[in-house]
Amino acid sequence: PESADLRTLAKHLYESYVKYFPLTKAKARAILSGKTGDSAPFVIHDMKSLTEGEQFINCKQMPLPDQRPEMGLGFGMGQESADEVELRFFHRCQFRSAEGVREVTEFAKSIPGFVGLDLNDQVTLLKYGVIEVLIIMMAPLMNKDGTLISYGQIFMTREFLKSLRKPFCEMMEPKFEFSVKFNMLELDDCDMALFLAVIILSGDRPGLLNVKPIEDLQETVLHALELQLKMNHPDSLQLFAKVLQKMTDLRQLVTDHVHLIQLLKKTEIDLCLHPLLQEIMKDLY
Amino acid sequence: LKEKHKILHRLLQNSTSPVDL
Prior knowledge:
The complex is a heterodimer of chains A (285) and B (21). Chain A has 285 residues and is mainly α. Chain A has 12 helices and 4 strands. The N and C termini of chain A lie far apart (42 Å). Residues 62-77 of chain A have low confidence and may be disordered. Chain B has 1 helix and no strands. With 21 residues, chain B is mainly alpha-helical.
């Protein structure tokens, strides 16, 4: 009976994951391997294709041609400097990240017992967990050559991201290094859903008021994850331990990411951070 | 803590549409 409960929990978290995260690993891997039947993603590999990629997305979202010049979203790129294009791309990434925070919050709320926790502790768990979750969610979108962005409509090459000016060029490379290794574990979407819930329910986040109920919830999800991995990957030895070890790498990645954003705030005069991301990163590490 | 995290708090209390963000 206990195993049946754990399987029910795994199914519930998988269903929430599919409901709140629009691009699943299954879909992303299908796009990356060209098995979708739809057209291949638009490839961004240099500044010219970046501006064309913006145009590609804008045309899909705003098909009325007479609206385009007023939007100021990448037309007449001739006079625009690379710095401006990079900064605009960074702002778009921020908006997508803020939307990602909303998706992760909805997923967290669907974890049984989460909304019953002290509200301050819910805020703390999300503040410290959300960037870790977003980095894990990036892994299925990546391969060694680049990453899907814009809900899988665009593929941006790793070399192009490395060619951006400092410190933009340093932002994604550590995530690629992590993702290539993480993807070797070959987790599927159900494994991922349980792992994300384990990350969110970390009882050692600074400032938690009532740790015990969080640890109790995490323990149940950990049991569900262990059972899921044993059933789904019977030949993968020590997979449960290997997955949990990734949590240490994740904390370092988030610390480095936040330091880079703080550096950006000092060096880029025109940079405005999204208020939600500001809230999360303030006094984080 | 929730006072310093008004948007997160709002997201936890109600779902917010992408446009609001």
